[in-house]
Amino acid sequence: RVDYNVPCDKDGHITDDRRIRSTLPTIRYLLKEGAAVVLASHMGRPKGERKLELSLRPAAERLSELLNQPVQFADDCIGSETAAMKKALQPGQVLLLENLRFHKEEEKNDPDFAKALVEGCTAAVNDAFGVSHRAHASVVGVGKLLPMVSGLLLKKEIDFLDGVIENPKPFAAIIGGAKISDKIQVIANLMEKADVIMIGGGMANTFVAAEGYDMGRSLQDKDRFELARNLMKKAKEMGSDIILPVDFMAGDAFSEKANTKVLEAKDFSDPWMALDIGPKTIRLYVETLRRMKSVVWNGPMGVFEMKPFATGTFAIAEAIANLDATTVIGGGESASVVDQMGIEDKFSHVSTGGGASLEMLEGMVLPGVAVLADKE
Ligand code: AMP
Fold first, then answer.
1. Concatenated DSSP letters of 8-72
2. Fewest CB atoms less than 10 Å from the CB: which of 167, 265, 273, 290?
3. For residues 124 and 38, what is the distance between their CA atoms, to the nearest angstrom?
4. Ligand 1 centroid to 203 CA: how many Å?
5. Which ligand 1 atom is nearest residue 298's CA?
6. DSSP assignment string, 249-316
7. Could you report how far apart the first and last alpha carbons of the chain are, in Å?
8. Residue 140 CB: number of other CB atoms within 10 A?
9. How remote is the C-alpha of 358 from its chain's centroid?
10. Which residue owns the Cα nearest ligand 1 atom 12?
11. Cβ(38)–Cβ(25) below 8 Å
């Protein structure tokens, strides 16, 4: 199981083949060991229907170029023709199956579908971290029918994201994004080990407002002030320091063209809203980061999609990249920021999975990992 859910342009050309490239070590290893390799993946959300624009055929072509050998392609991931192609496959050969999600049974974890997928196979490998939080047939069902082990990419993800908690100290987590409700579990789990948790993004507004400030029209979760206060209290009891922004880049509208000014929490009034962390906060967070031996980052510090409010996010990315420390980016938007900046290789690990990495940071065991024969 690989994750070849790659972006394509209108003509079906792959615009970013990183997900394909990142599976090469596992495929090459299996071929070297004499396996005949059958690859299965999803692409987009066809919802059980066959959609030409979501075919994996371009991925087979790209993989063939990267491996420098032919890659066969089966027009369906199950069925008699595919079974025959699998049967004819020789050690050292590669066959990519058509989009798993052309069958609705994939996402339903249908046991008969899983059985059809494994037909003719003797072992399974999960190298698709990005879907390992989903109990789908190719991720979980297959592992119940065959010995399924982690691929090299999956293992790297698990080692880094699991290991984050045991990383060298001092250990800081820096958490941003829009909503506190999405990250409560992440914060609660990380505070058990992190010396410092720095909060940014819209979520920080809720924490700051919970301390009694009127954040005006800033995005905030008014029903969760109590929860924010409890998290702060719990962190203190556990010896972890939650640090909040001391100033903000505010806008008078949620727009790229908004007028901007730097405001402290006490200064908010209509129509101003906090849309990024401010310059003093950037300095404070960057200084704090400098003392760290390990850092995990998840979630933007502001509305980074709009240029006037991207400074905080980019400054934090840059600061983490320049640390002499173990640095882990927990997928999602933070990973795409780092990618945009072209500084991916300056981090110890940039996760390929948004949802999956978040669930791991929450301390959950992913269903696609729980089913593996080689899990620790
Ligand atoms: P999440 O999906 O929770 O990681 O949130 C990411 C989104 O949060 C991004 O699209 C940002 O634009 C948005 N965001 C970050 N900071 C703020 C803020 N201060 N106000 C509103 N939205 C924000």
1. B-TTS-BS--HHHHTTHHHHHHHHHTT--EEE----S--TTS--GGG-SHHHHHHHHHHHTS-EE
2. 290
3. 9
4. 8
5. 4
6. EEESSSSTT--EEEE-GGG--TT-EEEEE-HHHHHHHHHHHHT-SEEEEES-SS-TTSGGG-HHHHHH
7. 20
8. 21
9. 7
10. 303
11. no
Tell me which residue of 16, 119, 289 sits closest to 301, measured CA to CA: 289
CB atoms within 10 A of CB 22: 19
Residues 6+ apart with CB under 8 A from 250: 218, 260, 261, 262, 263, 268, 272, 273, 274, 275
**Which of the residues are catalytic?**
19, 179, 332, 355
Distance in angstroms (rounded) separating the CA atoms of residues 171 and 252: 36
Residue pLDDT tens, the chain, 376 long: 999 999 888 888 898 898 999 999 999 999 999 999 999 999 999 999 999 999 999 999 999 999 999 999 999 999 999 999 999 999 999 999 999 999 999 999 999 999 999 999 999 999 999 999 999 999 999 999 999 999 999 999 998 888 776 778 999 999 999 888 888 888 998 898 899 999 999 999 999 999 999 999 999 998 999 999 999 999 999 989 999 999 999 999 999 999 999 999 999 999 999 999 999 999 999 999 999 999 999 999 999 999 999 999 999 999 999 999 999 998 788 988 998 899 999 999 998 888 898 888 888 899 999 999 987 6
Around ligand 1, the residues with Cβ closer than 6 Å are 177-179, 182, 201-202, 219, 274-275, 299-300, 302-303, 305, 333
Q: Give the position, in ligand 1's atom list, of the atom nearest the Cα of 305.
A: 12
Task: Tell me how far apart the alpha carbons of residues 13 and 223 are, in angstroms, rounded to a whole number.
Answer: 46
**Tokens encoding 67:** 């491996």
Q: How are beta strands 94-97 and 124-126 bridged, if at all?
A: unpaired
